[in-house]
Design a protein that fits this description.
The protein has helices spanning 5-29, 39-46, 56-64, 67-104, 110-131. α1 (5-29) packs across α3 (56-64). The protein is an all-alpha fold. It is 76% helix and 0% strand.
Length: 134
């Protein structure tokens, strides 16, 4: 047990390097755009009054990475997005199917519950797509 204590502590430092350091590097490399000092500079670059930290990571990816790695990075980001959406849709479908649907149909069979869950995922997907322009 004590042999795993130190390596697990090092694993806790990993998010620091994955999330914090790229933002600091972007601010140091692009002080006039990402590290904007005035509200007017921020509005000109990223349409935000506070800071341009939301565009720091994409700016680094697009300007520093080689072409092949850009594609891999986009694939990784899309895979993470799809994973998040799948988790949310499955959770919402399970909650609706097991908690809400029995209020309407008390003696619903397993096959019906499965069909309702799948239809609910389709409805959630349509709602999510319609939500994008907002």
């Amino acid at each position: 047990f004590p042999n795993f204590l130190l390596p697990s502590g090092y694993l806790k430092l990993l998010p620091l390097f994955l999330m914090v350091v790229p933002g600091m590097v972007a601010r140091a490399l692009y002080p006039n755009t990402i590290g904007c000092a005035t509200e007017d500079a921020c509005m000109a670059f990223c349409n935000s009054k506070v800071s341009c930290s939301n565009v720091a990571y994409p700016h680094l990816v697009l300007n520093i990475m080689p072409t092949g790695l850009k594609g891999i990075m986009i694939a990784v980001m899309l895979a993470a997005l799809m994973s998040d959406l799948t988790s949310i849709f499955n959770s919402a479908s399970t909650l609706f199917t097991l908690d809400v649907w029995p209020l309407f149909r008390k003696n619903a069979k397993t096959r019906e519950m499965l069909l309702v869950g799948r239809c609910f995922v389709v409805v959630m997907t349509v709602i999510s797509i319609m939500w994008i322009p907002l």
